[in-house]
Amino acid sequence: MDLKENNASIGKWISILHRYAQCYISKELKEYNIGSGQYPFLAVLLREDGISQEELSCRLHIDKGTTARAIKKLEIEEYIVRKVDEKDKRAYKIYITEKALKVKPALFEALKNWTDILATGFIQKEKEEVIEILEKMASNAALYMMNEHQ
């Protein structure tokens, strides 16, 4: 396969899938006032309540500025609260609220449905292969970025 051909660009197709996902999730969560820029943060916090903003950035591989903006919007919408970390008074731990717990089923259902939409017509082996390939690509990207910043 010649990757110089426009349709053979891996990045192009990943970008298209990402944009479609953002549109889908935004539409599904519109009634909750959760946008495509906030839902990944809320999803992590619903699984790991009480982590720091820095840990959240690391888990999502998103820069601290973007994380701060997303956290601020979730705080304004009352999905999370920030509390000073008892061990490090300069840092904050982020906790979900009752409002976040109420939206949890809708959020995770939307994420599951999107995965089901993407995998329509796939057999189980193909689904597993796609996940394996994407994990390998993410690992390659992370390794490259790590080496680039040394």
From TrEMBL:
Keyword match DNA-binding: yes
Pfam families tied to this protein: MarR
Domain annotation HTH marR-type: ranges: 1-139
Molecular function as annotated in GO: DNA binding; DNA-binding transcription factor activity
InterPro entries: HTH_MarR-typ (IPR000835), Tscrpt_reg_MarR-type_CS (IPR023187), WH-like_DNA-bd_sf (IPR036388), WH_DNA-bd_sf (IPR036390)
TM region positions: none
Keyword vocabulary terms for this entry: DNA-binding, Transcription, Transcription regulation
Highest taxon of the lineage: Bacteria
Entry protein name: MarR family transcriptional regulator
